Amino acid sequence: MSLITCTNTKTSWSAARTWKWLDETILPVANELATTGFFACLPAALISTAVDRLAGTGIGVGAQDAWYEPGDNTGETPATLLAELGCTHVMLGHTDRRARGEDDDLVARKAAAVHASGMTPLICVGEPEKTDTHTATEHTLTQVRACTAGLPDDAGAYVMYEPGWTVGSAAAEPAHVAAVFDGVRTGLADRPSEVALFYGGGVVAGTYRALRSAGAKPDGLGLGRVVKEANLLREVLDEIATSPEFDG
């Protein structure tokens, strides 16, 4: 599997700021991003326009959440509608949403709806506070099992390990990530379809190689603040492209 990359713009940018970012930072490196299967998770109101602006670039457009029930659910955005708009991925269970009470059961319902609508769920997991590796692994594996419980056995899924304490801060220690990845992969060994493990949280140039050196072997990377500045994004893309393991 080639390394996959993604980002989440959250809701801090206006529409105009988002289009400026796409035009000036993302599109100039669209070819490089496309080799990593890059997708950007945007606010629902921007998805339709973003799909049009990115058509033919190889860059996917994802959502930051989705609702799972059909019918009259005022204010929610159903997975079926996102798929109709051209959305390819949906981020679920981000630490921002979990902080407001979203639990694994709700994430599992949403993940099942996203898959049923033909999109790929990107399920965010990880310990909220810094702790020892064993506790982090047990917490994360429990989350992964619960959040994928509603998916068919043959359904693939993306799972992003992004410890809450790394958001907006430094990355977790590579050895810690490697131990968590190993525990999760071992715990899911009997699952018929593969779960792709991403790492997110403080990713900068050097993070990917450090993770690989420690044995973490991520299937994907969640890119945060580095996607906001063209030079920082270029450094990360160059690192990925020149890594011996990369087969993009």
Automatic annotation (TrEMBL):
<keyword id="KW-0963">Cytoplasm</keyword>
<dbReference type="GO" id="GO:0016853">
    <property type="term" value="F:isomerase activity"/>
</dbReference>
<keyword id="KW-0312">Gluconeogenesis</keyword>
<dbReference type="InterPro" id="IPR035990">
    <property type="entry name" value="TIM_sf"/>
</dbReference>
<comment type="similarity">
    <text>Belongs to the triosephosphate isomerase family.</text>
</comment>
<protein>
    <recommendedName>
        <fullName>Triosephosphate isomerase</fullName>
        <ecNumber>5.3.1.1</ecNumber>
    </recommendedName>
</protein>
<dbReference type="InterPro" id="IPR013785">
    <property type="entry name" value="Aldolase_TIM"/>
</dbReference>
<comment type="pathway">
    <text>Carbohydrate biosynthesis; gluconeogenesis.</text>
</comment>
<comment type="subunit">
    <text>Homodimer.</text>
</comment>
<comment type="pathway">
    <text>Carbohydrate degradation; glycolysis; D-glyceraldehyde 3-phosphate from glycerone phosphate: step 1/1.</text>
</comment>
<dbReference type="InterPro" id="IPR000652">
    <property type="entry name" value="Triosephosphate_isomerase"/>
</dbReference>
<dbReference type="Pfam" id="PF00121">
    <property type="entry name" value="TIM"/>
</dbReference>
<keyword id="KW-0324">Glycolysis</keyword>
<keyword id="KW-0413">Isomerase</keyword>
